[in-house]
Amino acid sequence: MHSRNVISWSMMISDYAINEKGEEALALFSRIQDKGTEPNYATYLGVLSACVHVGHVTLVQAIFDCMKQEGHRTLKGALCLNGRSAWSIGDLNEAHSFITNMPMELGMTIWGSLLGASAVH
After folding, report:
1. H-helix or E-strand containing 37?
2. Is the Cβ–Cβ distance between 120 and 88 less than 8 Å?
3. Tens digits of per-residue pLDDT, 64-77?
4. What is this structure's pTM?
5. CB distance 114 to 96 below 8 Å
6. How far is the C-alpha of 10 from the C-alpha of 18, rounded, in Å?
7. Local confidence band at 110 (pLDDT 50, 70, 90 cut-offs)
8. What distance in Å separates the CA atoms of residue 22 and residue 76, rounded to the nearest whole number?
9. CA nearest neighbour of 13 among 35, 42, 37
10. Burial per residue of 10-49, b for 16 or more beta-carbon CB atoms within 10 angstroms, e otherwise
């Protein structure tokens, strides 16, 4: 690939995550950070999916914190898309604490996501 930008990197990360190659996706994310490429919403969604596939629940929290620090307004969408899967492999008490400590009103969708994850347990 001649020209690498956030779009091409994000697509590669997402492809790895979708194909259950989470470790490769996370390694690629680390690589783009080292190169100084600024991640976008799609990059973070791919990384969050990769975390879920490899069971890195604590890394999910770190990624959400990073998104929040960078001012991503689409944080709620990422929570809804990835929350249920992440919480299905994690601790529901930790998930509840995470939701109640968010600096924004999350609404019914995220609570439904937590309820869905609790059904898995």
Report:
1. none
2. yes
3. 777 777 766 555 55
4. 0.67
5. yes
6. 12
7. low
8. 22
9. 42
10. bebbbebbeeebbebbbebbeebeeeebebeebbbbbbbb
